[in-house]
Every structure is written in C-alpha cells, then in structure tokens.
Amino acid sequence: MTEPLKIAGFKIFKEQLNAAEQAAMVADLRAVAQAAPMRRPVTRSGKQMSVQMTSAGRVGWISDRRGYRYEPFHPDGMAWPAIPARMLDLWQDLTGLERKPDCCLINFYGEEARMGLHQDNDEGDFTYPVVSVSLGDDGLFRMGGVERGGKTQSVWLSSGDVVVMGGDARLAYHGVDRIRFGSSSLLPDGGRINITLRVVQA
Ligand SMILES: O=C(O)CCC(=O)C(=O)O
Ligand SMILES: [Fe+2]
C-alpha cells in the first residue's frame, strides 16, 4: 500500500468514474485517436518518448526536435478533434469553473512505457488546475514539489481515478514510473490511458 499524498493542491478522487463511464470514455477516446492518430513524439534531443500521444481541443501538446509546445494542428496537418462532452462535464463537476479547458492530452502507456518527472509548464496560465483521468492498467504516479530534485511521494492510480493538480501542486514535478500491465480488463490489449484537461490560454 502507498500512503495518500500530502501535497497542498493535489487531490485524488478514487473511483470517480464507474465502469460504464470508463467504457464510454474509452469509446470517446478511440474516436479522437481515429481522427488524430496517436504518435510517439521525439524530444528536442531526438529521443523517442515511450508514451504514445494525441490531443483533442483547440490546441494539442506536441514535442519534436524544436521542443515542446502547443499547436493548433496535428503533425499530419489536421485540426484536433473537439474535446468530448463527457470530459468537459467531468472538468465542470470537479473544478466548478466557468472556463473550459482548451486542450485534452491523451497519453497511452504500453507495457514498457513511463513518463519522467516533469512540470506541466507549457501553458500560458497556471491559475487553472490540471484534471487528470486514469483508465485501464494501474500506474505508479510519482509527485514531488515545485523544485527539481526534491522529495517525492508515490501512489498507484487505478482505472476511474481522477487527480486534480491545482494551487501549489499545479507546478509540482510529477511522472509515472511504471504501469502494472494487465492489471485492468478495461482495454482488451492492456495498457494505461491518461487524459489531462488543461487551460492553455486564459
Ligand atoms: O499519466 C499520468 O498520470 C500523468 C501524465 C502527465 O503528467 C502529462 O501528460 O503531463
Ligand atoms: Fe504532466
């Protein structure tokens, strides 16, 4: 067992989504990925990320040899699909904010995928929280402070769990060390999906 994280502004809503809601979200995401195919981006240094990604919304998060940024078009040239209504409803339920997110980043973790510690800091406004949904296999989520190299705490996130990172946690370092491949039957071929809803431009 892992201890619940005690970081100001970090909230976990365990089992926020029931099985039917999770399945419906997966169906929504499949439609997004059909219109805007998942890719494994490279970083500025040319290293390929282990996670596959796509986005919905006004802008999508991309990485290539020019670095990280938000772009209004998929690397193949099409506009990103609209953020599914179900995701916007979840954002509204958990944040109560009038303002809607303008990016929904979708990450897919296969058996060997992970995400190194990083800050979500490519957005233009950090007053809005990031809402993060876990679907499929369990993922070991690691959370630190706002300084690189600080103390970290870890927690397993399961399918249907939703994390909100706002306030002091908005710019905290976080990452995913590994997944427990095959721990969930939500995705027939296994793996973990993470969705983050963000306000990129206030
Ligand atoms: O997969 C996760 O739970 C976190 C994903 C993440 O940190 C990101 O996409 O920026
Ligand atoms: Fe992140």
UniProtKB/TrEMBL annotation:
Gene3D superfamilies: Alpha-ketoglutarate-dependent dioxygenase AlkB-like. Its cofactor is Fe(2+). Residues 100-201 form the Fe2OG dioxygenase domain. It holds the Pfam family 2OG-FeII_Oxy_2. SUPFAM superfamilies: Clavaminate synthase-like (SSF51197). The keyword Metal-binding applies. Keywords: Dioxygenase, Iron, Metal-binding, Oxidoreductase. PANTHER family: ALKYLATED DNA REPAIR PROTEIN ALKB-RELATED, NUCLEIC ACID DIOXYGENASE ALKBH1. This is Alkylated DNA repair protein (DNA oxidative demethylase).
